[in-house]
Structures are given as C-alpha cells and as structure tokens.
C-alpha cells in the first residue's frame, strides 16, 4: 500500500488541467493587453493567482506539509518566501535603508512554515501587503527603461524577475500540491 494520494482534477474538459477553461479565473475575455508594461503586469497577475489556486482548499497541516523530501519546501513556505521576496524587491527600488526581513535568517520563511492557522493567516496577509507595497513602489516608475535604486536596475528587469520568480515557484507548487492531495493540473 502506498501513502501517495490518487491523482485527480476538478476539470472535465481537459483531464490534465486545474479547472475547466470556463471556470478558470485566469482566463479573461477579449484581447491580450496592449503594451509591454500591461503585458508584464498581466503575466504577474496570472502567476500570483495560480499560486493562490494551488493553495486553495487545504488546511494548515496540508499547506505546511513538506511533501517532496528531502526538500524543505511546502506550499505555506512558498507563500512566506514570496512575501519575503516581494519585500526584498522593494529594497531594489529605493535608495533608502533596506527593509528588514519578515521572518528572520536564512530559510526562516520555510522553517517557520508550521501547521498553525495563525501562521497561514499571517502568511496570506504578509504576501498581500508586500505585493501591494511592491506594486505601489513600481507604479511610480512606469518607464520600463528607467533605472532605480542604489544599483540602478532597470524597471523592466525587476518586472521580468518577478514573473520568473512566481513562475518557477508555481512549478514547485504543482508538484507540492499533487503530493499533498493528488490534485493535478496547470
């Protein structure tokens, strides 16, 4: 007997998808956005939503489960990690003193991802707050070619890096979720 969950999906149209196309909140009506900045923001929004979808319907224990040993990653750890990363991006945008980390030292975002509903609630609140703060900081710099912060990084590079970070971790979330309860899909 195996302790691996059976694979499943809510989708009925395509059995390898997370949700049916008509039920997927990432699908939008009409044309794709116009312009480079709007396109980058649309991709970032889609990946952020994907991560949230991968965490939906799980309890604190499931979110905190390190389901792909020997990795210390968990879905809750990813939420906390991305809150920490969003905060760090704010440090790249400003010339001021860096903001302190949210969770402490190295790997504290994953190490502190414990099966406690208060930790889960705090992780979601931290992520929403830090996403909004980074979005607001970048909104003051709509020119993708503008260089910001102490290191004079192009806004375009920051936007692409953010997309890359979420995309990579959404891939991790796919595997983590499937190992937690068997749910599969894009």
From TrEMBL:
Residues 1-37 are annotated as: Disordered. Pfam families: MST. Coiled coil: none annotated. It comes from the Bacteria. InterPro entries: DinB/YfiT-like, MST-like. This is Mini-circle uncharacterized 19.1 kDa protein. It comes from Actinacidiphila bryophytorum.
